[in-house]
Amino acid sequence: MRFVFFQFGLPTGGQMSLLISAVVMILLDMLLLKIALAITKAEVKKNMKWVAASWGIQFGIILFIASPIFLYTILGRFEEDAGIIILVTFFSVFIDVNVINLIHRIGLKRSTVVMIFVVGPIISAMSLIGSTLGSGF
C-alpha cells in the first residue's frame, strides 16, 4: 500500500495540506450530521456509531453516482461539460435525502435539512481530493 501511495514521489507540502484539510472537513461533516440529527429531533439511530455508518453510506452513494465527475476532475477535463454536473448532483442529492430518511426515519422535510448540512462538505472534500490527485500526486 505504501508503494502505491508514494509511486509518484513524496507529496509536496501544498498537496499534503489539501489532503489534511479534506480529512478535517470529513470529520467536521460527521459532527455536522450529528448536530443536524439533533436539530431535527431524530429518535432512531442517532448514536455516533450510526452517524458514522450513515455518513459512510452517504459518502459512498455520492461517490458512486459522481464517480465520472470525480474521474474527469482527476484527468483535468472538468470544464468540458457543465450540464451533466448539475444533473448528477441533483440525482445524488435526491438519493441522499431518501437514504437519510430510510436510515434515521425522520421524514423527507427533516431529511432535506440534514442533507443541507451534510452534502456541501462531502462534495467539497471530494473535489479537494480529486484536484490533489489530478495534480500529479
Written overview of the protein:
This protein is an all-alpha fold. It has one domain. Helix content is 78%, strand content 0%. Helix 2 packs across helix 3. The longest helix is centred in the N-terminal third of the chain and has 27 residues. The chain is globular, with a radius of gyration of 16 Å.
Q: Globular, elongated, flat, extended or rod-shaped: what is the shape?
A: globular
- Percent of residues in helices comes to over 70%
The biggest sheet amounts to:
none
Q: What's the rounded overall pLDDT mean?
A: 78
Beta-strand segment tally: 0
Whole-number total of structural domains: 1
Structure annotation, total helices? 6
Short recap of the structure:
The protein is mainly α and 137 residues long.
What tags apply to this protein structure?
single chain, mainly alpha, 6 helices
Write the layout of secondary structure elements.
Elements: H1 2-5, H2 13-39, H3 48-65, H4 67-75, H5 83-104, H6 108-134
